[in-house]
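S2.1 Query sequence (protein-serine/threonine phosphatase)
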Amino acid sequence: MGAYLDKPVTEKETESGQGNGLTYGATCMQGWRVKQEDAHNCIIDLNGEWSMFAVYDGHGGDEVSRYTASRLPDYFKEREFWASDDFVATLQQIFIDFDDVLRSEEVMKQLKKMAKEGSGTSERGDDADNSSDECDRIQTIEEILFLQVVCYAVTKKFKFEILAIDKRFVTTLCLLRELRDDEESEDDSDFTEPDVEAEDEECDDEDDMDVLQDVDIPGGLETPGEDSGTTACVCLMNKQRIIVANAGDSRAVLCRGGIAVDLSIDHKPEDDIEKKRIVNAGGYVNEDGRVNGGLNLSRAFGDHSYKKNFDLPLRDQMITALPDVRVETLQPSDEFLVLACDGIWCVCYIIKIALCMLCDHCLAPTTAGDGTGCDNMTVIITTITH
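Output structure tokens follow.
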């Protein structure tokens, strides 16, 4: 079934609280996805005056979204953003610096450990478990066979490069390069009986296996933080202001006098400003709106496999964590704020029903459609008391 279960996980995790003139409720649901990759923050007392609400929509794994939810609030406090005269520049720099931390050796080790541990979200039916296990077994066999073929095929005459990996699926493209003259005999070019001295062959095997040293079998060919990431839609509020810093396609909407006011902008690869940056960094956007044929959003924490142009700063890479920042002065007519991942917004804009009912309403009856209603779902609603 691929990225979907045989039946959705509809149990909800909810929380609520109040303080600083705010009352909030939040819920998240795994839905049809194989695992829950969303994470969120609801922190009434960030520093005494400010509150923080955020949603993180992970992809390629849940480790980056979980790590971000656990560490980003402290990062905001350490930087004391509230003392800044320029919230926009300060929050943008915080996002970029935090993304830089994500690729440090220490954090990469933590992300790898978190990826192996998993999120622990496994409330599924028996059929779903069996289906998922079977998919994992088949996928692992395919990976082992692929690597076995590659390792035996690689001699002094050929090398290979792993060019593309898309989430849990092995979409590896082998590029065979001829390293010898055309004068080599046919026997040498036939892998059944390669005419290579044992010492040289052993040496080649060691060199070529170096390329595979970071590949874990079983468990896929991805590197946590390199091939996984998360959106981030962060709302910081005190009694005078509301600030939203957003990278990705999660959204924040403020209800002001009964009218929905967008406080964030979706970042999609096909948008002119995004596409220009992607192309300038050496990438491309295909006809399906995916960066280099892979990721279907253009701003996120993590995803450092898309951030390898060393001639450019981190904020100018194909995928960037640079957020758009919106600063609003609170008004008496401001009623409530909604923060949600795209699993909610793709289905309905904003409706005043209970949050758990909202998730059920957004859930697709099957996975036979275009994927709408099949994603993880997280939503936070915060009411504002004047």
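The domain at 4-114+223-384 is CATH 3.60.40.10 (Phosphatase 2c; domain 1). DSSP finds nine helices and 13 strands in the chain.
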